[in-house]
């Protein structure tokens, strides 16, 4: 009773208000915070920098059969571009051949007479052909227009080298002449892209007879992960350029089976801990520049996934010192979650928490069954972490609570007649409800396999709207012994992106809607996004399924 009262008081303090929480709650990490941030700084990886050059001249062509209605076609050799007259052709597009993240510089020069007036250009940096073909304005997206990668530069004279101040992520650059003197002509004489990442080559390779499409999915996944591995695991190098806990989890899994940079995972774990709220609860994401700082938001599913990341990090690296150091953070996330269970161990949807649940980009997706499953899964992962650290006595009630939650899930969320878990008032059947219940081991593997298959075969079931959601479905399929189905789903989903021209995997992909965007504009979507990199993890961890 005493423990339950303490938990209730603790949680009330947490949710009196995010904006005023610092003033109302003692900083539970006061003694550790600076040391954690110091350890995060010490683990900061050096960036590997490489100079990249464009490889060809292209043009954007409207094509209804192409992804989002646009494709690029070669328009000339790159040597034809350099020193070409912008007065004869005031719009030119260069193609770097693959996606890069870094700093862009361009040198403009004169043709003929010396410059006698300023010259103005517009530069548009694009991950996808649609960003070249469709105008950015008028912009009606739900995120800041400033995320779109276009710049107007004015040259006071020529020759002149322009370096764009902000870091960029792109494959294509469109250069448009906006204004120039009639007295002289202008051209581009050089372009440099200083590409950055903290990793270079994967330490694992695939079996020689691996299916060519699987090989290509793995290659694109590695490129995606590499671009997002900067001085933290970023969610997307074009947008938002932040460390989110959910992306961290999936990137760390993929990294463990490719680049194996454990120091980056360690840095991110310490940064999140060092920037946690005074109450002990983790913020959903942090930004690094100008100085590391947390965004004022909490997501319960991400808070709990931090514990899973810490457990996976310990198993991968053997770094028990870090896991013990950050164990109090994991305990505090448990305290947050437990308050949202009712007396029977079921997540209480009647409460109105001051956080949101991520899970997937899908408008009609009901999250009740999924959060119940994720909480059960994360509680078990935390208990396994405690066992590795010899701290079972600190969470000795967890096994009983986990069993209680599973019993509640079977009683209230499982439809025995249909053989599936349902969610919400409308008793929605979704892929993710089955996936999270399978990962939580709420039913036997055989029963969970049936639930997954039933949902997948139901045309009315809610399917995932993002690679993040599909990751957990594939993980669940493998856990339930449905390896062939998992392989088929990867080929269908990530293979579908490859077939539609992906250089890196996308934040949002719906095979039935090429222009799907949670932000009301597909132009603002991120087309190199961390949570889509996990085919690398599956392909390399389960060679018997994916490399045969």
Quick recap:
This protein is α+β, with helices and mostly antiparallel strands and 548 residues long. It contains 18 helices and 14 strands.
Features:
9-stranded antiparallel β-sheet, 3-stranded antiparallel β-sheet, Jelly Rolls, alpha+beta, Glycosyltransferase
**Oligomeric organization of the protein chains:** single chain
Query: What is the end-to-end distance?
Result: 55 Å
Number of domains: 2
Please state the CA-atom Rg, rounded to the nearest Å.
Answer: 25 Å
DSSP strand tally = 14
Overview of this protein structure:
The chain is an alpha+beta fold and about 550 residues long. It has 2 domains: about 50-195, Sandwich (Jelly Rolls), CATH 2.60.120; about 200-545, Glycosyltransferase. Helix content is about 40%, strand content about 15%. It has 18 helices and 14 strands. The strands form 3 sheets. Strands 1, 2, 3, 4, 5, 6, 7, 8 and 9 form a 9-stranded antiparallel β-sheet that branches. The chain has a 3-stranded antiparallel β-sheet with strand order 10-11-12. Helix 11 (about 370-390) runs parallel beside helix 13 (about 430-440). The radius of gyration is 25 Å and the shape is globular. Residues about 1-25 have low confidence and may be disordered.
């Amino acid at each position: 009773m005493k423990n339950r009262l303490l938990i209730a008081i603790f949680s009330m303090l947490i949710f009196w208000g995010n904006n005023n929480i610092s003033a109302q709650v003692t900083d539970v990490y006061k003694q550790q915070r600076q040391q954690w941030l110091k350890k995060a700084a010490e683990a900061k990886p050096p960036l590997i920098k490489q100079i990249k050059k464009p490889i060809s001249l292209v043009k954007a062509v409207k094509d209804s059969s192409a992804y989002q209605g646009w494709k690029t076609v070669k328009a000339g050799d790159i040597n034809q571009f350099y020193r070409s007259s912008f007065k004869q052709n005031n719009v030119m597009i260069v193609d770097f051949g693959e996606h890069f993240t870094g700093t862009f510089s361009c040198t403009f020069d004169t043709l003929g007479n010396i410059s006698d007036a300023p010259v103005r250009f517009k530069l548009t940096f694009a991950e996808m052909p649609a960003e070249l073909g469709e105008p950015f304005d008028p912009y009606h997206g739900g995120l800041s227009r400033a995320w779109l990668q276009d710049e107007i530069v004015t040259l006071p004279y020529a020759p002149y080298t322009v370096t764009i101040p902000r870091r960029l992520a792109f494959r294509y650059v469109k250069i448009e002449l906006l204004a120039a003197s009639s007295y002289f002509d202008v051209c581009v004489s050089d372009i440099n892209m200083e590409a950055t990442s903290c990793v270079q080559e994967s330490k694992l390779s695939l079996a020689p007879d691996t299916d060519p499409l699987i090989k290509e999915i793995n290659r694109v996944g590695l490129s995606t992960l590499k671009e997002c591995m900067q001085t933290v695991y970023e969610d997307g190098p074009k947008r938002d350029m932040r460390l989110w806990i959910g992306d961290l989890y999936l990137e760390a899994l993929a990294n463990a089976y490719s680049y194996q940079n454990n120091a980056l995972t360690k840095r991110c774990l310490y940064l999140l801990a060092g920037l946690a709220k005074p109450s002990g609860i983790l913020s959903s994401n942090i930004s690094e520049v100008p100085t590391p700082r947390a965004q004022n938001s909490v997501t319960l599913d991400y808070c709990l996934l931090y514990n899973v990341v810490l457990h996976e990090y310990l198993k991968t690296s053997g770094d028990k010192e870090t896991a013990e150091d950050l164990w109090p953070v994991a305990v505090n996330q448990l305290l947050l979650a437990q308050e949202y269970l009712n007396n029977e161990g079921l997540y209480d949807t009647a409460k109105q928490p001051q956080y949101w649940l991520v899970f997937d980009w899908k408008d009609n997706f009901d999250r009740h069954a999924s959060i119940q499953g994720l909480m059960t899964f994360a509680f078990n992962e935390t208990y396994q972490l405690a066992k590795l650290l010899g701290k079972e006595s600190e969470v000795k009630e967890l096994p009983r609570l986990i069993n209680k939650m599973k019993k509640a899930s079977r009683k209230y969320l499982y439809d025995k007649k249909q053989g599936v878990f349902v969610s919400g008032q409308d008793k929605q059947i979704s892929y993710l409800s089955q996936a999270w219940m399978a990962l939580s081991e709420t039913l036997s593997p055989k029963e969970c396999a049936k639930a997954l298959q039933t949902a997948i075969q139901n045309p009315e079931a809610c399917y995932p709207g993002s690679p993040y959601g599909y990751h957990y479905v594939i993980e669940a399929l493998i856990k339930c012994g449905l390896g062939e189905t998992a392989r088929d789903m990867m080929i269908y989903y990530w293979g579908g992106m490859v077939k539609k021209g992906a250089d890196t995997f996308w934040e949002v992909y719906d095979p039935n809607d090429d222009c799907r965007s949670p932000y009301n504009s597909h132009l603002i979507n991120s087309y190199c996004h961390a949570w889509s990199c996990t085919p690398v993890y599956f392909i390399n961890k389960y060679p018997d399924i994916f490399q045969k």
